[in-house]
Structure formats: C-alpha cells, structure tokens
C-alpha cells in the first residue's frame, strides 16, 4: 500500500510492473481475437466536449461525469467545457457520425481503455477502470449478433477464464412475454427492471416488488415469476410465447443465434435463459450475458441496440455489440498469477576499469533477446551484488573480475543451483541463449 | 476529416485502425527494448490530486494544466480538486515516495501513455499526446546514464528511425564554461537559455540577446558564441574547460559516457557537442539530445537530474532518464506506411440456409489464425459481396453456394489474380494457411 500522502487519487490505482504485465497480457490476447474477427481498433480522446456526454446517461449517471474546468480567463467562471469519457459507446456514436463513409460498412470496431466515473469507490469499484467493447454498427444481420457472441466467447477463452456459460434471451421475447401476461405497455419497462433482479433476490421478493412498485396484481406477478424460475422455464416459455407475434419473433431470433453461434461457442456453453433481462432499456433484439463458475454477476454482456447510435447523436443505423468485464477478468487472473522471473541475466560490476567491456557484452546479450541488467549500485562487494541479482530474480549472474578479464572469460553463475562456469566473452550470448 | 460538429475536442485526435496500428506498433517495439534492459513498466492514473501537480511546472506551465471540477454538492463551488497528468515525471516522484522499499533499487522504469496540456493546438502540437519516458531512480553510477542513452538509441533503432545522432554535453561542463568566461553565477541560467537557441538563431542574434537580455558585455558574448560555434569547438572546449574544476569534472563525465555508450550506440553516432544546452534547469550532470537527418529539433533527449525527484515531492535520490519524442517518431513512420491488407479471408454469404455452416468453417479459419470476416450486409448478389471483399482488401474471398454445399466444397477466389479453386470444406483452413 502507498503511504497515504502519496496514494493515487481516491478510486484510482498505480499499476506497478507485475500487475501491469497481467493487464497488458489480457488486453493483448483479447485484441488478437478481435482482430481475427476483422474488428478494427478505435481510440478516441480521454475527454469529449461536455455537451457530447450530458443527457446521454440519465440524470443520476450524469452526476458521475468528471467535468473539466475551462481554462485561462474562463477558469474563474467555474464552468466546465470538457468531460472525461464515461463509456466507449457515446464516442463510438460520435465517430460514426464524424467519419461516415471513411469507415468500412458495416463498421466493426473494438475499443479498450480507461473510462472515468465519479462513483463511490469500493471493493472492486474504481473511478478509473478499463472497458473493452466490441460492436458492429450498420448491420441488421443475425450473423452480426452471432459474430459478437462468438468473438466475446473466443476472447474469454483466450484470456484463460475457461469455465463460463453464455445466457441468451431477446428483448422481443420479453416484450411478448409481458403481452401474454397482460402487463400494460407503460409499466413494462419497470417490470423488466424488477425481473432483472431474479439472479439476486428470492422469487418471493421479486413478486412483492412487482406488486408494490410496479402495480401488477399478485396473481399475474406470481405466475410470471413462477414460469421464469421453474425447472422447465425454457419449455414453458417456448409454449407461452407462441401466443404473441413479438414472442414468436423473439424466439426465432434466439434460435437463430443459438444455431449460428452454438458450434463456435460450444453447444453446451450457450443456452436460452428466459430469466435473463438486462435492465438497460436500449436493447431491441437478442441480449446475452456471460457468467463464470463461482463468480457472482456477469463477466461479459451485450445485445442488439438498433436505435441507440441515433439516440446518442449518431446516424440512425442498426447495431449490436458486447462488452467484456475486463477488470473482473484481470482480477480472476491476477490472483492466480505466479511470481515470475524478472530478468534473465544480472551483470555484476567488479572492476571499474572494465565498465566499457561489461557494457559491450551486456549489449550483445540484449541484442540476442536476453533481458539483462547491469548492477548500478555503489557496492564493490560480490556478495552484495549477488544479493541484488537474487532480488531481481535473475536466472544467471555474470562475474567479470580482473582474473576473468585477463583470461577473456566471464563467470556465469546459475542463480538457482549456485553452479558456476567460465565462458569465453565472445561466446557468452550464444551460450546463454542456448540454455 | 471529421464533419465539424462531430470532431473530437480541439487538440485531440480520434485514431482509426490504420493510424492506431502504427502507434501501437511503435509503443510495442519500444516496450520490448526497454524490457530487455530490465526497465519495468509503470502506469499511473490519468489524473492526480491538483496539489500534486500545481507549483511543479512554473507559473506559465501551470496555466496549461487541465483541472477537474469537484463533484456533487461541491460542483457549484467552481473549484477543482483533480487535474490531468501533465507529464510522467511528477507521477514518478509520487510513486517513488509512495512505494519506496517495494520498488527495486535502483528503480528502473518506463512509462508510455497520454499526457494532457492545454496548449494552443497547432500543426504537430496536441492537447492530448503520448509521452514515453525511461528513468533510473536511485543510482548515481555513470553506468545508469549510459544505460539510458543506450536504451533510447536501441529503441529508436527498433522503431526504424535509423539515421540519427546522439549529441552529448554536461551541465557541469557548461557551468565550468561560464566560470571560465567570467559570467556571474546569477545570470548563468539566463545565459544558458539564450545559448540553447544556437540551433535555431544565427550566432549574431544569440550574441545580441546575450548582451541585451542577459547583460553580458559584447566581448564575452562574442567569444563565448564564437568558441561554441567554431569548426573546432570540441577541441577549444577541451582546452578551455581545463581551467575550471567543474569544467574538468564535466569533461570527465562526458568522456565516461562516450566510452560506455559508444560501442552500443555506434561510435560514429554519438559525440560531445559543446553547443548542446537543454534549457531545463533541473539537469545536474550529463545531458543528451538525439537529432535525426532532415528533421528540425530533437527526437529524444534526457540527462541526469539528481535533485528533481526531491523537488517534485519525492525522496532525495539521484536519478537520470530520457524521453522519446514518440509523436514525432510516429509522424515519421506514418508518412512512410503503406496501405496494408486488412483481412486474410472475406466470406460471402450466398444461401441463407447455410449460415450456420458458414459460421462454423469461418470459426475454423480464425482458430488457424487467419483474419476472417463474414459478409454482414443485406445484398444477395455475388458481385456486390465481392466488391465488399475488395474494399476490405481481403486476400481471398470464399463462395459457398448451393452447388458448393451439395459437393462439400468451398470456392476460394484469389482477390489479386481472380483465380478460383474448389477446396473441400474440411481442408479449408489448412489449404489457406499453407498459402
């Protein structure tokens, strides 16, 4: 932990080498998968014009936007004109509006990087955290939904998360469901928000909230919750939804997705899940969530949102996408990570007259791709320098004292076994490279 | 260009795929070199507490700091409590103060990422731009200076910049020089700032500024500028500096650096350069600058700054470092970059009934590492889909119509030659992989 005075600002983190390497590795394997799918990287500025962001996230969330004070003579006004990126989707809408025909059609892009939200910091909740989004803008094809789901699942596999399941539903199926149960359209949104809590609350509590807060009658609420949480919920839904046109359309798009993505994701790892709701009201078609064994909540999610890009200020184009919970994934992997070696070769410095020679052969080691460090401290004692080599978790330490120099040799010490060998200076790189 | 309404904020940029790939490539090769030297990555938050930054950069520069408005009930105060990172050095000082003994000794770190300055935007001058710093904190050894210079030169080589020279001088040599010429200590700093303009102004103009603005007498100013700009400036300096203790110490550290770094950098690419000044007054030892053929200004620079970490709020430790002008380097490379292929395989969709099969063999191509895309548009026409494949600059297009499906074959079209072959579905990945 950082001593308090020098801690990073509340809700943010300093990433030292070990953590940063895990993060960079995760981003890098995800990037590789997305590129294989033909998704293109996009990077937008850390801040946007304030008016680009405000009004896009709802009143409560607008309060969480970090705003940047005007500068120079305008600073005293206390007004803001810029704001830190709150997510990757509003910048995407702006980019689609800005570059239109310069972008491929459809525009398949991924974005990875920090976003900032002035949330109350807590365990696993940060004010600066990474998001990782993959989206297809400008295609209404069910193949696009399938591509997103497959890319997300492949990316999770590549990070090594392993044991996960993809839950699938459709916003149209949910609309059909409400229709069949006679829920009035104007309370439908609220009912879905409450149903979304089925993975956290007991069924009875959800029924109570549906009655108290969403004004459903008790019978309807119990039937709805009963069907969604039944052992045979999938069969019940398949029957019930047939009575609604929206329901039938929803079922068809769910089956389409299972059909197209199943073979890639693994048929046993993807399933229609009637109780999956996704509270966000911008979804218009299939929706999905990925859950991992032993983890509460989801590690990825997404769906089709055909009207969102327009609502965010972009053109009116169909779109779908997914988001990986990279911070949670990194958290999973960091705990598992072993302490790894930091460097290959630690070069001790025994003789001030031979510094140039030491630098020269170290340079050769680096050219051969060996991670090598020269001792930069002030001690002349070998024992102290070998302790430094051990602290750096080097595989080998090199000793080049007066005797070695006279003989044109370098002593190579294996830091695990303590074994020492003499190797001619001009064979050092190939010798160490070979081991 | 973005249509104006949707442009990114003034002084910032959206990076679409082609540009972003060049940037990421440059960062990646630099990272690899620094890691080979045993430098560790560090990433600090985008913003710091305001008090961490203010007063560290001088009054003029303080105005360029982007400040973040307080939130919630405090927003109306118009006050700021946070500010965007202005450079990588102040965060380094904070990290060294915060994590002390958890860090290796010395702490060799590199940092790459955006910084933000509310400068007036202009050609090649941005408000959000990348910095790339490499530093050794906690070593007074001349080897540390040499390691920094070698790492910077190796990194430049790795990016492909090629034709560059490393100019070397020493702050102590400059102090000795002023001493020998009888320049009063209290005007010395100003004299050096003026001498720093020798690479931009005519010698006569520099003499004039030394007389007018720095109150040197004309004879001294002319002698100083004359010696620094002479053909045999190096020889003159080597003679002159012998008359001062600081001068002799400076010469010794310059020669040490040339001796240690010369073999790695290339002896012909590094040289003592008496007119190199580096305006920044925090340097205490050797200083360097890297210049590239045909480019005004420098593409990298650095030196020893033994008292800066303490001045910035960190502990009092010796340190040295260098900074790569990554934006300039990226600019050099972007102009040279060729249009590259975007994807390996474009998969057309001729038959709605075979979508699942198309997805399945595309998935196989991706597993084999081929960058593959499926057509997501609405046209059923082959010609239109082949135009899409050409727009995507695919190497191959695949056609899987009813006839191919009946025969278990896929038609592979070479997008350069137009040649078409039929390949069994189950041999597709190995066939394309092999070519």
Automatic annotation (TrEMBL), chains A, B:
The keyword Transferase does not apply. The keyword Protease does not apply. Residues 1-333 form the Aminoacyl-transfer RNA synthetases class-II family profile domain. It comes from Spongiactinospora gelatinilytica. GO terms for molecular function: ATP binding; histidine-tRNA ligase activity. Keywords: Aminoacyl-tRNA synthetase, ATP-binding, Cytoplasm, Ligase, Nucleotide-binding, Protein biosynthesis. Homodimer. The gene is hisS. This is Histidine--tRNA ligase.
């Amino acid at each position: 932990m950082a001593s308090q005075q020098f801690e990073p600002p509340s809700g943010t983190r300093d990433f030292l080498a070990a953590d940063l390497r895990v993060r960079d590795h995760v981003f890098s394997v995800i990037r590789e998968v997305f590129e294989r799918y033909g998704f293109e990287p996009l990077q937008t500025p850390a801040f946007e014009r304030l008016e680009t962001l405000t009004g896009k996230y709802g009143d409560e969330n607008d309060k969480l936007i970090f705003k940047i004070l005007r500068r120079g003579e305008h600073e005293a006004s206390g007004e803001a004109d810029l704001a830190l990126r709150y997510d990757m989707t509003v910048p995407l809408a702006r980019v689609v509006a800005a570059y239109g025909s310069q972008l491929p059609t459809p525009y398949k892009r991924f974005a990875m990087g920090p976003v900032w939200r002035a949330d109350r910091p807590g365990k696993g909740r940060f004010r600066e955290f990474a998001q990782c989004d993959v989206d297809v803008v400008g295609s209404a094809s069910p193949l696009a939904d399938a591509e997103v789901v497959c890319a997300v699942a492949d990316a999770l596999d590549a990070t090594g998360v392993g044991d996960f399941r993809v839950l699938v539903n459709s916003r149209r199926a949910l609309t059909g469901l409400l229709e069949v149960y006679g829920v009035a359209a104007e309370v439908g949104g609220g009912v879905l928000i409450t149903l979304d809590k089925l993975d956290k609350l007991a069924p009875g509590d959800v029924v109570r909230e549906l009655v108290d807060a969403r004004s459903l009658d008790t019978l309807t609420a119990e039937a709805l919750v009963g069907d969604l949480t039944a052992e045979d919920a999938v069969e019940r839904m398949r029957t019930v939804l047939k009575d609604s046109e929206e329901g039938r359309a929803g079922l068809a798009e769910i089956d389409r997705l299972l059909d197209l993505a199943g073979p890639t994701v693994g048929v046993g790892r993807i399933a229609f899940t009637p109780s999956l709701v996704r509270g966000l009201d911008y979804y218009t078609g299939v929706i999905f969530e990925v859950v991992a064994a032993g983890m509460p909540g989801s590690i990825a999610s997404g769906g089709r949102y055909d009207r969102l890009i327009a609502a965010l200020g972009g053109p009116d184009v169909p779109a779908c996408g997914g988001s990986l919970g990279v911070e949670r994934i990194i958290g999973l992997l960091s705990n598992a990570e072993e302490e790894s070696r930091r460097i290959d070769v630690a070069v001790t410095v025994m003789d001030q007259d031979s510094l140039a020679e030491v630098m020269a052969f170290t340079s050769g080691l680096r050219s051969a791709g060996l991670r090598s460090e020269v001792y930069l401290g002030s001690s002349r004692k070998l024992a102290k320098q070998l302790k430094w080599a051990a602290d750096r978790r080097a595989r080998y330490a090199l000793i080049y004292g007066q005797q070695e120099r006279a003989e044109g040799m370098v002593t190579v010490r294996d830091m695990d076994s303590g074994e020492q060998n003499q190797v001619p200076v001009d064979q050092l790189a190939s010798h160490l490279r070979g081991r």
